[in-house]
């Protein structure tokens, strides 16, 4: 039941996410990353741990190999990733972040950290830690432990 005069909790979560993403896009655009695609952050974080094959990236992002290949092609065209031969098997191509990709990932991480600091300053550590616990419970412990989710951590 919705409390009269208050927005639905799910709507608030959606609006908060949209506002966060708008702020992230603005902050990274100010640093020259004006061409970021909707999925770029997921790819940057996935490759932030090290190079990966298209198959491995697809698995981590829970998308098809064709989808991962299309993302890689687009991000390669924009200078965020590059393909290089695997040193242990020249037949295999690995996706690597370029310097531009590393810089974009660093800018996004900086925004994430600054955002959380602002929330902590405004609401306090106890409130934010409690909210983090609520979000973790909502996401589900099983979901958080999946390789897909771990690829999004930093």
Describe this structure in words.
The structure is a single chain. The protein is mostly helical and 154 residues long. Helices cover 65% and strands 10% of the residues. The protein has eight helices and two strands. It has helices at 9-30, 40-48, 54-61, 65-77, 99-123, 125-139, 141-144, 147-150; strands spanning 81-86, 89-97. A two-stranded antiparallel ribbon has the order 1-2.
Salient structural properties:
154 residues; two-stranded antiparallel ribbon; 2 strands; mainly alpha
Summarize the entry for a quick read:
65% of the residues lie in helices and 10% in strands. The protein has eight helices and two strands, in the order ααααββαααα. The chain has helices at 9-30, 40-48, 54-61, 65-77, 99-123, 125-139, 141-144, 147-150; strands at 81-86, 89-97.
Uncertain runs with pLDDT below 50, 5 residues or more? none
The residue fraction in helices comes out at 55-70%
Query: Could you tell me the number of beta strands?
Result: 2
Radius of gyration: 18 Å
How far apart, in Å, are the first and last alpha carbons?
Answer: 37 Å
Instruction: Give the CA-based shape.
Output: globular
Strand order of the largest sheet: 1-2
Main pleated sheet: 2 strands, antiparallel
The overall pLDDT average reads 90
**% residues in beta strands:** 5-15%
Query: How many distinct helices?
Result: 8
What is the structural class? mainly alpha
H/E series: HHHHEEHHHH
């Amino acid at each position: 039941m919705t409390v009269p005069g208050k927005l639905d909790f799910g709507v608030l979560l959606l609006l908060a996410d949209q506002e966060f993403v708008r702020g992230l896009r603005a902050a990274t655009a100010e640093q020259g990353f004006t061409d970021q695609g909707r999925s770029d952050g997921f790819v940057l974080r996935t490759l932030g741990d090290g190079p990966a094959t298209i198959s491995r990236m697809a698995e981590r992002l829970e998308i098809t190999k064709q989808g991962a290949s299309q993302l890689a092609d687009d991000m390669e065209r924009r200078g965020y990733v590059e393909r290089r031969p695997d040193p242990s098997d020249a037949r295999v191509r690995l996706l690597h972040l370029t310097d531009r990709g590393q810089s974009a990932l660093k800018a996004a991480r900086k925004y994430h950290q600054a955002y959380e600091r602002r929330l902590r300053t405004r609401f306090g550590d106890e409130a934010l830690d409690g909210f983090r616990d609520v979000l973790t419970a909502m996401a589900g412990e099983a979901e958080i432990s999946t390789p897909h989710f771990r690829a999004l951590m930093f």
